[in-house]
Amino acid sequence: MRFSVPRSLSPSPVRRQQQRSKSTYRLPPDSDDSDYDSHSDGVESDDSFCYASESEVPKQPIKPRVKIKTTAEQRHIEDTVAAIRLRTRHHDPYEEWEKQTRKDAFRTARKHQTAQQSQIYDELDKSRSQEVLRLAALHAQQLAEVQAQLNSMKIQQQREEDRLRTGWKERDKLLWQRIDSVIKLEEDKVRTRLEAERKVREQEERKRQEEEMRKREQEEKRRKDEEDKRKAQEDEARQRAEEQKQKDDAEKQRIQDEKDRADRLAAEGEHRKAAGLSTPEDDWRNARSILMNLKTNTMRPIKSVKANKSAWGEQRRKITPKIGQLTNDAKSIQDITNFILGVMLPQQPLPPMLYAGLLSSLTKAILLQAETEVTAEKKAAIPLAQVTFSLLERLDSFPDVFFAKLVQRCGGWPLPCRVPNTDHDGRPWDDDREHQKVSGYRKTALQSDKIGGDEDFVKKEVPFESVTEYMDRVAGVMRVYFHILKIPPRSKPLHPMFQLPRCWTWFARMLGDRSLLESPVAAQLIYTGLDVLGSHALEVWGQQWVKMLELIYVGVTVGFAEGRFIGGTSPPGVSARSRVQIEVERIMAGAR
């Protein structure tokens, strides 16, 4: 027979009634059992229960009124109660092991916690001791630093005291020296005053004697000065007469030379015409007429019409930078030449007026480049001359325009000749400044001054460049011209002004005009021509060129009539004449 005991009272009264009806036996609570403790593990018993209100509390079950009458039933009940009690008092080893395990774990945890706390306390004590040691060392170091700083300040203070003490000693020494010097100065003043009084007395005595002597000497000097003045007046009058005579002779010689030259030219006129030759003056008038025609009939109409000026400016801005980019390189020379030819000779031909205006701009760019670059570096003339030579071959009317602008920038030196007293049309020059401008001189920067505090300006007369500046600029341009003459013709002969025979013509005309030879510019240009063409001309003309060099050498060493030298007597002329002499000697040394 099996019996079951519920784990706890059911919270449901219905369930409780159902369960209660299953058995007619009820086990009374065993409050006297001390061997079994349901709360020993600290876990709440399954019989505990809380109701939400008193109304839910079930009523006590009604005790059965059935009385047990037989012994078997009584014994069955007792056996059942005993079995129940035995079951309730059953000892579970697992529960005991679990309890013991919990106690051991608790003890182990407490032991581990105690060890950890001890270790933490030890580490804290160790860190505190290390921090104390570190702070002590830091305090000791800081104390040493402070002590060293105090010692340094003490040493510095001692030095400052020594310096001040030394300064005071020097000051006292200087003060006493000043006092001694003042005392000595006063003594010297007294001594000087006494000496001066003595000297004054002696000087007065000496002056008295000298005055007597001076009167005698003045009388003698006056008579002598009158005699010298009379002689000086006579010498000055004689010198003025000699200078006037020399001027008259020079003027007569110049007039006679011009007359002889005019007669010679007149006599040779027919022969010149037959040979196709011209005089320097004719060449100058021709170049001048081309230049004035270019200004009047080309540049003025272009600049007066906005459309023409815009087209001209656009093409000109393409050409001018290319000339400045030229270098002494075959590829650069060829590229720039082709570029300029492409601008000047496009597939659609340019209008004649625009073409002529671009020729003028191209010539001006080349000449300005020669004036700036060649003056500074001689080798810059070679690529510039090669580009110009190619353009002279390919561009129509360019030789005439180029030579006309060359004469404009250099005056009569490319021919060579002196600029006449009248223009190409016979009009006399307005003043000397116009004649100087036509001769190739350029004006310097504009000068202006204010009048009082007004804003109006009065322009001063702008001066022209000096002879040295003019000489260097013209030499740079003529060096390019001489290099052009040196280049042999390629496809067809160039304009006569750019052929090699012009070299002989130029030197012959230069040596035939004494008025030109006396200018320092002539000596500089002769040196430039010999530097570029001297050796080459010797190969071409041989002994005839040697005779030309001989005339030049005589002109720079011995001089022409009446001791006149090539280049004159000015410092620029003397230096240029020395260069000519060295260049002639170099050419002749190479010929040997």
UniProtKB/TrEMBL annotation:
InterPro entries per the UniProt record, alphabetical: GLE1, GLE1-like_sf
Keyword Transmembrane: no
RNA-binding as UniProt keyword: no
MF terms (GO), sorted A to Z: inositol hexakisphosphate binding; phospholipid binding; translation initiation factor binding
GO CC terms of this entry: cytoplasm; nuclear pore cytoplasmic filaments
Localization annotation: Nucleus, Nuclear pore complex
Bias (Low complexity): 1-16
UniProt-annotated stretches for the region Disordered: 1-64, 197-281
UniProt keyword terms in alphabetical order: mRNA transport, Nuclear pore complex, Nucleus, Protein transport, Translocation, Transport
Residue ranges with Basic and acidic residues bias: 197-273
Primary location recorded for the protein, binned into one broad class: nucleus
Name of the protein described by the UniProt record: mRNA export factor GLE1
One Pfam short name: GLE1
Family to which this protein belongs: Belongs to the GLE1 family.
GO biological process: poly(A)+ mRNA export from nucleus; protein transport
